[in-house]
UniProtKB/TrEMBL annotation:
Keywords from the UniProt entry: Cell membrane, Membrane, Symport, Transmembrane, Transmembrane helix, Transport
Entry-linked InterPro entries: MFS_dom, MFS_sugar_transport-like, MFS_trans_sf, Sugar_transporter_CS
Alphabetized CDD domains for the sequence: MFS_ShiA_like
Gene3D superfamilies: MFS general substrate transporter like domains
Keyword Transmembrane helix appears in the UniProt entry: yes
Protein name: Putative proline/betaine transporter
Any one GO CC term of the record: plasma membrane
Keyword Nucleotide-binding attached: no
Sequence segments annotated as region (Disordered): 1-21
Chief location of this protein within or outside the cell: membrane
Reported function: May be a proton symporter involved in the uptake of osmolytes such as proline and glycine betaine.
Length: 458
């Protein structure tokens, strides 16, 4: 059945769905899971910037090499994410969304707690083992998150009433700003209550260990779910794919390519706004060790600036759903992507504008992030039939993470150093990636009116 069926067919298919999860249960289950997942992911990103370079890579040649080594491990998770989307997508399209979401959350949670107990590389006998275990745990984090996002997106959108998929799709997306705020608030609290020596010695471990509590809460919520109506229709039609990854590449490979590049600017923007800006913001204005110059902010002060920006991320994530329903996903994202291209050209003047300019840059960047990230939980799944939707949307989403987020912090640090401490090339990099996304959007059709509930690949 075609993925471009009429809106009338969509309405009939979705309104006839059997009763299932209430709206409140869908909101909480899709939101809490991604909040926990992104909390886990962000505490690593923050630690990778502030603690891990010296803790796990003390023998690197200089601070810049330490930072690049830390970000290289940061990128391991993004390499694992497409594998996670295939692994968890296989089970999500074969046995259902609910059980797979529970498994992905456990994988992510166990890996995060493990990071919290790894000895430092300076510990006798751990010079090689500590970085190796960190890489393994980071890989497992990526596997879990690779299976988490598409499942949470389907939980929301496959339970959505007709005409509200983009609105419901913002629920799991809201987990990103919530997880970011929670993770960085914890780091601020630790930084202000502990001495730098205490924080570097053991305080950084607390956020990783505390994630165990959050995972237990998330599991309790998700175990109470019913299977989504769309997957129950796949079961009723006896259309479950035996090998979803083979079928999705055979029937929907063009959609995988399209979805990957549609997400590219979103990923690059987000990890530049969080990881790069944090490093650039707290780096000394006149470093003595050969590292590129930064803005010289105190760590806690800049984290508060980031948190204020992420508030706009959350607000505009919610607003993006109604906008994508009213104007269409494609038109909405085209205009937001054009704005991202322009935004890349504002890096130099805004970073040079003092605290007001830097805060304005963060607010504008995170506003654009909310507007582009919010609709993605509807856009990517709408590209794929129901019986390969978990796998297909997850692969597209996570392949984009490799091309965008995995390398963005590494490339940004290198460009920053090449430009003698100026962010000009980093802004150019963002604009170029956004141009690629714009081309992908112009080549893709509108997906707002696809027959979402009944569509099954042959």
């Amino acid at each position: 059945m075609s993925t471009a069926s009429s809106s009338a067919g969509t309405a009939a298919g979705e309104q006839d769905q059997p009763a299932g999860n209430s709206r409140g249960r869908v909101v909480v289950a899709s939101l809490i899971g991604t909040s926990i997942e992104f909390y886990d992911f962000y505490i690593y990103a923050t630690a990778a910037s502030l603690v891990f370079p010296a803790l796990f890579f003390p023998n690197a040649e200089d601070p810049t090499t330490q930072l690049l080594s830390s970000f290289a491990v940061f990128g391991v998770a993004f390499v694992a994410r497409p594998l996670g989307s295939v692994l968890f997508g296989h089970f999500g399209d074969r046995i259902g969304r609910k059980a797979t979401l529970v498994a992905s959350l456990l994988t992510m949670g166990i890996a995060t707690v493990l990071i919290g107990v790894i000895p430092a590389a300076s510990t006798p006998g751990w010079a090689v083992a500590a970085p190796a275990v960190l890489v393994l745990a980071r890989f497992c984090q990526g596997l879990g998150l690779g299976g988490e996002w598409s499942g949470a997106a389907l939980l929301a959108t496959e339970n959505a009433p007709h005409g509200k998929r983009a609105i419901y799709g913002t629920f799991p997306q809201l987990g990103a700003p919530i997880g970011f705020i929670l993770a960085n608030t914890v780091f601020i609290a630790l930084s202000t209550t502990l001495t730098p020596e205490q924080f570097a010695s053991w305080g950084w471990r607390i956020p990783f260990l505390a994630s165990a509590i959050l995972v237990i809460v998330g599991l309790w919520v998700r175990l109470s779910l019913l299977e989504t109506p769309a997957f129950r229709k796949v079961l009723a039609a006896e259309a479950v794919s035996k090998v979803p990854v083979a079928r999705v590449f055979r029937s929907s490979w063009k959609q995988i390519v399209s979805g990957t590049f549609i997400m590219l600017a979103t990923y690059v923007l987000f990890y530049l706004m969080t990881t790069f800006t944090l490093n650039y913001g707290v780096a000394p204005t006149a470093p003595e060790d050969g590292a590129p110059a930064g803005l010289g902010y105190e760590k806690v002060d800049f984290l508060w600036m980031l948190i204020l920006g992420v508030v706009f991320f959350g607000v505009f994530t919610l607003l993006s759903g109604p906008m994508a329903e009213r104007f269409g996903r494609r038109k909405h994202l085209i205009w937001v992507t054009v704005a991202i291209i322009v935004f890349g050209g504002l890096f130099v003047p805004l970073f040079a504008g003092g605290t007001f300019g830097v805060q304005t840059l963060l607010i504008l960047g995170f506003t654009l992030m909310g507007l582009t990230f919010g609709p993605m939980a509807a856009v990517l799944p709408e590209l794929f039939p129901a019986n390969v939707r978990y796998t297909g949307s997850g692969i597209a989403y996570n392949l984009s993470s490799v091309l965008g987020a995995a390398v963005a912090p590494f490339i940004a640090v290198w460009l920053w150093a090449q430009a003698d401490g100026s962010p000009v090339l980093v802004g150019v990099y963002l604009s170029v990636m956004a141009v690629i996304t714009l081309v992908a959007l112009l080549l893709e059709r509108e997906t707002r009116d696809v027959n979402y509930a009944d569509n099954v690949s042959a």
